[in-house]
Amino acid sequence: MSDELQTTLNDSTVDRISIEPADLTIAGADRARFDQYYKGILYRLHLFENEWTVTPLGEQLAEAFDDAIDVEFDEVRAAVENDEVEMELIHRFASGGCLCQLSNREQELLTRSYFYLVTRTGHYDELQFDLDPQPDLLDLRPFLTSDVREERSLETTIEATLVGTEFVEDADFSEDLGRFFETGRDFYVRCSLVMLLALGEWVTTRPTTQPMFGELADIREIWRLLVHAEHTSHAFQAMFIGLLEAVREEEPIQPEPLLEMLIGHEEFDDTIERGLSGLTVTEGEKERSRLTQIRDTIYFGMAYSGNITVEIDNDVGSFTGTWRDVADRLQANELDGDPFQLTNQSERAYRQVLNQTLRESPSLSKSRRVMAYGALQLARLSTRYVQYFAKDELAPFVEWFRTANTHPGPLTIWRLLDDDVSLQLIPRATQKVGSIDGTAFGTTVAELTERWLVEHYFERLYEKMGESNGKSPQLLSMDVDRSLSFEQQYNNGRPNAPTLKFERLGDIFYELGLTEGADLSGIQLTPRGRKLIRAFDVNLGEDR
Fold it and tell me: Are 499 and 226 in contact (CB under 8 A)?
């Protein structure tokens, strides 16, 4: 909305506003694509079949909206035909037509839409809001174990599959409705939304030491893989930032001597030993983001409720050994059963110490420690494959996840503990790096860095340049005198946001009356939200 229009709307002396095209533009080629954005949502929720046909679901929602507002359609049509609208009509429309004040009926129908409590049919004209919440609607197993998972559309992003909110603005047409239900897309979204709400309630009230996932066990395993991928991405990005900062300190320099300077240095080996035996996680009193608590609860089965810091004991000696030696030490003190535990060598601990180190001013010492802690995080993550994800019963979940993997990612590091295949997972790098002075572990880290941080960065940069006729955004460039110019800092020196973006999902929960606010970092369920998850017979822990 323009400042001029905002001023006009707030002017009590104005009784009508011109809506001629010259005076008011809702959308255009260079605007926010108002029409495209909302049209996409209407398709995703199966409210529209095409640009000319509303589904039975859309008809019911339209009727609920019409009942909620004190405006007749003829009044709106007359205003459009006259190219002006009276302020009285605007205020009357706003009093019942704003999203912040949905009627009970609108909330009920939209909740059913977002949770896909609708007829499972391949024909749009048969759609009805005829499903009620029940435990059977959280059973993902048939869609994980059947051949249909192999046919999951590759253009369907993992976010759209799990929470149904990604790229809604890009939808120009309705989906193959039969395929949508056959592949269980409705189940993936429904299970994900119910679990997020249920865990939001659990981390807020903490009625038990650990939640009992019950009907949500399958969707928990899918999300555990997703959180696993987020930790992997964070580690690779942190190492990339450490590498770039070292390049800036030392340029001009080639990758091989730079890696020798960082990873072949004794400070790298000392930091590895500190990370294996010298870290202590302490919990403070300030509450952590509840969304972060939800992620940890999915991954570890529990979560710190207070803010955490990692204390480092510098007097622990220096590490010597291989990647397998690191992995063996990481697993040595873990209890039997579920290996995912919140210890001083957990993914959460390494992620925290990485974040603490990244806050320091750039220096070679900082870069060495970032590379070391990032490498330890990757080693920690690689143990999860042999400990857990390689189990036969996890195969359906892993196969589902493989369709979303990109390198560098979990699959890049999962099998580094297998000596027969480790070098195949780091193609070409060993020819360049050779052996780093120091440890065998350091050589593996250098190989990973050379292939997936140095080479991969330039591969992606050249791809972007080939896809665009304009100037491609890049972090650094070479001047005519062969010196480097740093165009911009990578994401302000911090790893990028997690895999899933939750802002829109928070807004949705809030507008549906399921949460007290739109910010999921402070998620708190309303009575309506608690009633919904209970209707699915989900209770992660008995009340004290």
Answer: yes
Q: 306: which 2 tokens?
A: 């207070």
Listing DSSP states for 93-143 in one string gives HHHHH-GGG--HHHHHHHHHHHTT-S---S-GGG--S-----GGGG--HHH
- Which H/E stretch holds residue 17? strand 16-18
* Residue-wise pLDDT tens digits, 276-320: 998 999 999 999 999 999 999 999 999 999 999 999 998 888 999
- 507 phi and psi, to 5 degrees? -60, -40
Distance CA 75, CA 371 (A): 65
Q: Which residue type does 487 have? A: E
Closest by CA position to 223, among listed 254, 194, 192:
192
State the Cα–Cα distance between residues 178 and 158, nearest whole angstrom: 20
Tokens of 335: 């209890």
Beta-strand ranges (E) seen in 450-496 are 476-478, 484-486
pLDDT tens profile 217-253: 999 999 999 999 999 999 999 999 999 899 888 887 8
CA gap 428, 255 in Å, rounded: 14
CA angle at residue 370 from 368 to 371, to 5 degrees? 65
The number of residues in the chain equals 544
pLDDT in tens, 432-473: 445 555 568 999 999 899 888 888 777 766 565 555 544 445
Give the dihedral sign, CA 91/92/96/98.
negative
Q: Is the pLDDT of residue 167 over 80?
A: no
Dihedral-angle region of residue 60 (phi above 0 means left; psi in -120 to 50 means alpha; beta otherwise): alpha
> Distance from first CA to last CA of the chain, Å, rounded?
50
CA angle, 18 then 23 then 26, to 5°: 100
459-465: list long-range contacts, CB under 8 Å, 24+ apart: none
- Predicted TM-score (pTM) of the model is 0.87
Distance CA 240, CA 260 (A): 16
Residue 93 token pair: 């429309």
Burial of 54 from C-beta contacts in 10 A (0-12 / 13-18 / 19+) = middle
Angle between helices 527-535 and 185-205 (to 10 degrees): 130
CA distance 371 to 349: 15
